[in-house]
């Protein structure tokens, strides 16, 4: 984690939260790492109050757990946790596609098409980190079209937990290419404007990831 500049108390807490979250999702802070308020405050060059608030937000998002006598520690998600996350995500991503289909504009479709093109470039370059980044942006763009803030918030929380648990998952051979193909099918279904078809495509994508999580034996991409 890098130190952050001076700002208002609210601004410091927000920037501390972003820095801490980024470090956790990048696995710079590994599962099981204790998030001590004094240590976090010192590392970020801030007072304890914004550090405490940032840690509380991280815990609220499920990226850390709070235990008696130890305080907050970076969450260690087991495979069973990830199965539950993907089961819930399958339903919610499907709902996002269902809501987005009748609302999709030409501009929305162009934005999603651009993300698919970027995704293809990442897959061709075998750039795993870029794949994750564009994949996440694709799903986020669909949530924007769906225009349901509570749905978006719920999926954002789940996506963060998925990224945290990636160190436990495996990448299936051809997984990135498969995800790209599924994104193309989702976009095609959204262009049709058929809510049921779009929901089915969204759910099928996450269901496949869940199957990979449960069955693939080697080092699942999403």
Automatic annotation (TrEMBL):
Residues of the HTH gntR-type domain: 10-77
Keyword vocabulary terms for this entry: DNA-binding, Transcription, Transcription regulation
InterPro entries: GntR_C, TF_FadR/GntR_C, Tscrpt_reg_HTH_GntR, WH-like_DNA-bd_sf, WH_DNA-bd_sf
GO molecular function: DNA binding; DNA-binding transcription factor activity
Keyword Protein biosynthesis set for record: no
Protein name, as recorded: GntR family transcriptional regulator
